[in-house]
């Protein structure tokens, strides 16, 4: 990922991406416009879905933090084997209601394996070691725009709710524009890096998102 892309990534900090109020207002405007939501790092979706389809099996439990209005939620459910359960969360009540209604409309009302819920990823109301996989596409980047302690809190919460009991479980699938040298410091003694893939932005798409990285991380410890 080149200097130009990193420079573009730095500019996002001029917007209040770390503020819950910013996201609530943004999603209210999206809902009023009745349009498709903005897709962060759109070229990462195929990589995330491919990894999830490889790892997620019947009985697996997958959480996405900061799922927003992204289509990744529906793509993940479609890519993974039947029998898995999915929990898509966001801090915005508006977008959770919007995406839940969209899912009910598209699935014919079947909500047996998928749930949308309002949650703060820095303080998850979930039991420890209760999930097999956590997906994060740009949420940690947004949290980076606040106090750095929130970045640590988010990572600790992801670590806490992940379980390594199931074969292949305990994975944190993270898409972030931050350089690996920086992110490795953030991961500390919480996660080991299995693989890092570059996510190239598509300039033809018109998306302002910079190049990014797809981190496949494994929970350290029990």
From TrEMBL:
Boundaries of every Methyltransferase type domain copy:
63-164
Q: Which GO terms describe its biological process?
A: methylation
User: What Gene3D superfamilies does the annotation carry?
Assistant: Vaccinia Virus protein VP39
Q: Which organism is it from?
A: Chloropicon laureae
UniProt entry tagged with the keyword Lipoprotein: no
Query: What are the GO MF terms of this UniProt record?
Result: S-adenosylmethionine-dependent methyltransferase activity
Q: Which UniProt keywords apply?
A: Methyltransferase, Transferase
Checking PANTHER family in the record gives: METHYLTRANSFERASE TYPE 11 DOMAIN-CONTAINING PROTEIN, SAM-DEPENDENT METHYLTRANSFERASE SUPERFAMILY PROTEIN
**Stated family:** Belongs to the methyltransferase superfamily.
Fetch the SUPFAM superfamilies from UniProt: S-adenosyl-L-methionine-dependent methyltransferases (SSF53335)
Any signal peptide, and if so, which residues? none
What is the protein name stated in its UniProt record? Answer: Methyltransferase type 11 domain-containing protein
Query: A Pfam family name for this chain?
Result: Methyltransf_11
């Amino acid at each position: 990922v080149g200097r130009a892309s990193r420079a573009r990534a730095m500019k996002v900090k001029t917007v209040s991406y770390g503020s819950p109020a910013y996201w609530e207002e943004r999603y209210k405007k999206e809902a009023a416009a009745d349009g498709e939501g903005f897709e962060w790092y759109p070229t990462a979706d195929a990589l995330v879905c491919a990894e999830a389809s490889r790892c997620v099996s019947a009985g697996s439990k997958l959480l996405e933090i900061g799922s927003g209005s992204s289509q990744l939620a529906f793509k993940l459910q479609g890519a993974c084997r039947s029998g898995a359960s999915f929990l898509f969360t966001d801090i915005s009540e508006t977008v959770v209601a919007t995406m839940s209604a969209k899912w009910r409309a598209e699935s014919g009302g079947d909500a047996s394996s998928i749930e949308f819920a309002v949650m703060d990823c820095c303080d998850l109301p979930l039991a420890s070691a209760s999930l097999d996989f956590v997906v994060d596409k740009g949420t940690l980047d947004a949290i980076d725009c606040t106090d750095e302690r929130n970045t640590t809190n988010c990572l600790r919460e992801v670590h806490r709710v992940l379980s390594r009991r199931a074969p292949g479980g305990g994975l944190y699938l993270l898409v972030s524009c931050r350089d690996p040298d920086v992110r490795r410091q953030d991961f500390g003694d919480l996660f080991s890096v299995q693989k890092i893939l570059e996510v190239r932005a598509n300039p033809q798409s018109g998306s302002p998102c910079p190049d990014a990285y797809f981190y496949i991380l494994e929970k350290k410890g029990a």
